[in-house]
Amino acid sequence: MSLTTQQNLRAYVDYLRDLGIYDLYRRDEPQTLLPEALRSAIASTATTAKGAPLPAPPQRMAAPPQRVAPPPSPRTPLQAAAKVQSPEAETPRNLPPEFSVPMPKPVSFDDLAPLPLQIIPPADRAAALEAVRAEIGDCTRCPLAYAGRHNIVFADGDPNARLMFVGEGPGADEDASGLPFVGKAGQLLNNMIGAMGLKREEVYIANIVKCRPPGNRQPEPIEANTCSQFLLKQIDIVRPQVIVALGATAATYLLGVRQSLGSLRGHWHSSRGAKVAVTYHPAFLLRDPRQKGEAWKDLQMVMAELGLKPVAKA
Ligand code: URA
Predict the structure, then answer these.
(1) What is the Å distance from ligand 1's center to 136 Cα?
(2) Is residue 141 part of a domain?
(3) 14 lines ligand 1 (CB under 6 A)
(4) Could you tell me if residue 104 is inside a domain?
(5) Which atom of ligand 1 is nearest to the CA of 180?
(6) Are 284 and 221 members of one domain?
(7) Residues 22 and 115 in one domain
(8) Burial class of residue 153, CB neighbours in 10 A (0-12, 13-18, 19+)
(9) Is 223 in the pocket of ligand 1 (CB under 6 A)?
(10) Range of the domain at 142
(11) H-helix or E-strand containing 177?
(12) Could you tell me if the CB of 254 is within 6 A of ligand 1?
């Protein structure tokens, strides 16, 4: 596959992911591959290495209805408990073998650990965050450590912030500088923060994963789940009143739900004792600026909660 084709496909996948669409291959409908509109869009831009258009992906035949025997009921209390607690992953149903890798279920931050009994006093929060950074060290806990990372991107901002933004993971600029949201998406985030009547230094900014996924791909569940323990500690130290989940990846891991962004926006969720609002990732807004008005609605909901007034335009 040529580089341009790969980049086109990547852009489509990113676009769908920002909209909260993860499962391009829908599990309940094995006959459905990509939506027709997307398939023709890809076919019209994708070319082979020699420049010829790529053939359309094969249509999958509808799977014949299968009779599934009911699972045997557990025999002992131990077996019953094991049935409730496992498996972590969804069991694939009637999938062709090439798609039958189980997709791990996201786990909400609230389910990962009980809320801390001890509240870190405001004056000690900076030091507590430094201790978390020291604990991370020169991390090799997940594959991202070996994927060309230059810097671990811990966080930026006020250790006592009332408002926290959580993104997906560092991009190239963040990997080079060691700070979150400093590239083009970061500039837009700064503008969003400014429009809310705040300065970047007054909020706390972090990501689901602290190392750059190669090619800015979405973090794998193993990477996000391995890293999330540290974001969880950061949230518990800062204790923001409101967290804004920027994009579907942040929402998925903070809340433990894999749902469309559209269904998560516009109302409050909760994580670690904070109210959580979900909005579009700034990188998505750069690709589709028509959605900026929608994002502004989300931020206005946050502003009302925090008693912030929008900045009057000069
Ligand atoms: N995108 C993110 O999700 N996080 C960053 O820090 C930068 C870009």
Answers:
(1) 19
(2) yes
(3) no
(4) no
(5) 6
(6) yes
(7) no
(8) buried
(9) no
(10) 109-306
(11) helix 172-177
(12) no
Distance 91 CA to ligand 1 centre (A): 32
Centre of ligand 1 to C-alpha 283, Å, is 8
> Are residues 192 and 118 both part of a single domain?
yes
pLDDT tens string for the chain (314 positions)?
666 666 666 666 666 666 666 555 434 433 334 445 444 544 444 443 444 444 444 343 444 444 444 444 433 333 333 333 333 344 455 666 666 666 678 899 999 999 999 999 999 999 999 999 999 999 999 999 999 999 999 999 999 999 999 999 999 999 999 999 999 999 999 999 999 999 999 999 999 999 999 999 999 999 999 999 999 999 999 999 999 999 999 999 999 999 999 999 999 999 999 999 999 999 999 999 999 999 999 999 999 999 999 877 66
- Structural domain includes residue 74: no
Contact at 8 Å (CB) between 281 and 246? yes
Q: Which two tokens stand for residue 101?
A: 């890798």
Domain boundary among 69, 99, 129: 99
Rounded-to-integer distance, Cα 73 and Cα 76, Å: 9
- How far, in Å, is the centroid of ligand 1 from the Cα of 25? 26
Q: Which two tokens stand for residue 88?
A: 């972590």
Cis bond leading into 114, ω under 30°?
no
Is residue 263 a part of any domain in this protein? yes
Q: 280 CB less than 6 Å from ligand 1?
A: no
Whether residues 129 and 161 fall in one domain: yes
Q: Scanning the structure block, which residue is given the tokens 């990501």?
A: 207
Rounded to two decimals, the pTM is 0.75
Residues 251 and 218 grouped into a single domain: yes
Q: Does 37 share its domain with 159?
A: no
Ligand 1 neighbourhood includes 228 CB (under 6 angstroms)? no
Residue whose tokens read 């999330």: 228
55/13 same-domain check: yes
| Helix H or strand E segment including 157 | strand 156-157
Q: 18 CB less than 6 Å from ligand 1?
A: no
Asked whether 282 lines ligand 1 (CB < 6 A), one says no
Give 249 Cα–ligand 1 centroid separation in angstroms: 11
88/129 same-domain check: no
Question: What domain count does the chain have?
Answer: 2
